[in-house]
Amino acid sequence: MNVIETKIKDLLIFEPRVFGDDRGWFMESFNQHVFEKALAERGLDIPQFVQDNHSFSKKGVLRGLHYQLNPHAQGKLVRVVQGRAWDVAVDIRKDSETFGQWVGVELSGENHKQFWIPAGFAHGFIALEDNTQFLYKTTDYYSKECERSILWNDEDLSIEWPIEEGLKLLLTDKDSLAPILKVAELF
């Protein structure tokens, strides 16, 4: 598995080896040993996954920017198994030297990339195709009481969302009315 570092040291992209022939393809989508080794080599905390989630989205669905506060903060290992999504993580750790910075990566059923987003980051994505299926492993269970969000288009974040001209975005009220980073409850 190829491990790609990003401009924020805690965020990593995992690119599995895919073996294909005229019958189709095979890949190892997760290996605990490889994952732990990649994090340990970079001095990062090694999580334990406790929950898997699966979402299905139409083109133009924008989910996020979501996170959970302590004591149920979540790290996420995310991937797209069908379709395409632009996936974003924003550093919301007030004491971090990269506070307010973001990293985006295209995840797709074709490129098989996975994005490691530890606790302390807000996460969101936009589905770039119909029938986009998103899988993620989380390091803590869902907690409504700890759930928070930040406005996806907060001007202070300047996230470069790849939104096609004329595309109608599909958002929940929770996401379209989320607070901006300056007033959000953070880590």
Automatic annotation (TrEMBL):
Q: Gene3D superfamilies, per this entry?
A: Jelly Rolls
Example GO BP: polysaccharide biosynthetic process
User: What is the superkingdom listed in this entry's lineage?
Assistant: Bacteria
Q: Which is a Gene Ontology cellular component entry for this protein?
A: cytosol
Q: Which segments cross the bilayer?
A: none
Biological pathway: Carbohydrate biosynthesis; dTDP-L-rhamnose biosynthesis
Catalytic activity, EC: 5.1.3.13
Query: At what residues does the UniProt record annotate the site feature described as Participates in a stacking interaction with the thymidine ring of dTDP-4-oxo-6-deoxyglucose?
Result: Y142
Instruction: List the catalytic activities from the record.
Output: dTDP-4-dehydro-6-deoxy-alpha-D-glucose = dTDP-4-dehydro-beta-L-rhamnose
Q: What family is reported?
A: Belongs to the dTDP-4-dehydrorhamnose 3,5-epimerase family.
Q: Quaternary form?
A: Homodimer.
| Functional summary from the UniProt entry | Catalyzes the epimerization of the C3' and C5'positions of dTDP-6-deoxy-D-xylo-4-hexulose, forming dTDP-6-deoxy-L-lyxo-4-hexulose.
Family matches, as NCBIfam families: rmlC (TIGR01221)
Protein name as annotated: dTDP-4-dehydrorhamnose 3,5-epimerase
UniProt source species: Acinetobacter kookii
